[in-house]
Amino acid sequence: xxxxxxxxxxxxxxxGPVTGEQDNTGIxxxxxxxxxxxVKLAPGRTIEIRLAEIDAxxxxxxxxxxxxxxxxxxxxxxxxxxxxxDIDAYGRLVAHIYRLRDQLHVNAWMVSxxxxxxYLKYAEDEKMIALEKSARxxxxxxxxxxADQQIPPWTWRHRKK
Length: 161
Prior knowledge:
Elements: H1 2-13, E1 25-33, E2 36-42, E3 45-51, E4 54-55, H2 64-75, E5 79-87, E6 93-99, E7 104-105, H3 106-112, E8 117-118, H4 126-138, H5 153-160
Parallel strand pairs: 3-6
Antiparallel strand pairs: 1-2, 1-5, 2-3, 4-8, 5-6, 6-7
């Protein structure tokens, strides 16, 4: 049912029929944190996107600012292709994002550089889990922090309630 809702929402959001790559592209206009952003589709049409299968540190968490800043450097102002995965409880599109100029899979890049966790509760792609494992083994990004600072965002949010 969610997939049907996604397709219906996609048809409403994007101009014209969703048939080609131009139909699901936009320009990143704002990066909120390491896993959420705004994409401008057309004049006056902007959507909020949550990166699928990952969870980045919260702003107040160790590495939160770095995660946001790295995502911003990577895609702010960049044309991107959007592959919708779901809709979250806040009405945001949950999607995989690809930078158009080189087809870089942004979600995977964030995990491989230790800037986000794989969100195991929602992850379906085994490659994402392998990327996180590799980043952990290399102690890159969040995996280079002391163990007591490597708190998954979902745990951090729960503790803050």
